[in-house]
Design goal:
By secondary structure, this protein is of the alpha+beta class. The protein has four helices and three strands.
């Protein structure tokens, strides 16, 4: 994982969800996982995972492709989404409030 992630002001849930996606993706940079699995492993609710995934997508950390399976006859059914972990060059800049925080934990400031 790129160490610059700590400058992007992710919440703990966003960070752990992103970390789990990175873990599952491995060298492929993509994975398919059920929301419930992410919620169970990250020890949070499905709604928290959905919110975290939306923020991660909006901020350029991941891309999400919906999974659908064609059924015999008519219609489709929802399957696992596919999550693509994007390169850090595509991440959007940190939020303003992050830049206002104390940077006392930086090894360069001590």
């Amino acid at each position: 994982m790129d160490s610059s992630i700590f400058r992007f002001g992710l919440t703990p849930i966003q960070f752990v969800v992103y970390s789990y996606l990175i873990y599952c993706a491995g060298n492929r940079c993509a994975c398919s996982i059920k929301l419930q699995t992410i919620a169970s492993v990250c020890e949070c609710s499905r709604s928290s995972v959905k919110r975290a995934l939306n923020v991660l997508r909006d901020r350029g950390f991941i891309d999400i492709k919906g999974g659908a399976q064609k059924l015999r006859g008519k219609g489709h059914r929802q399957t696992c989404n596919r999550y693509y972990c994007l390169d850090s060059s595509e991440w959007k800049p940190p939020i303003e409030r992050w830049s206002m925080r104390s940077k006392s934990c930086s090894p360069h400031n001590q």
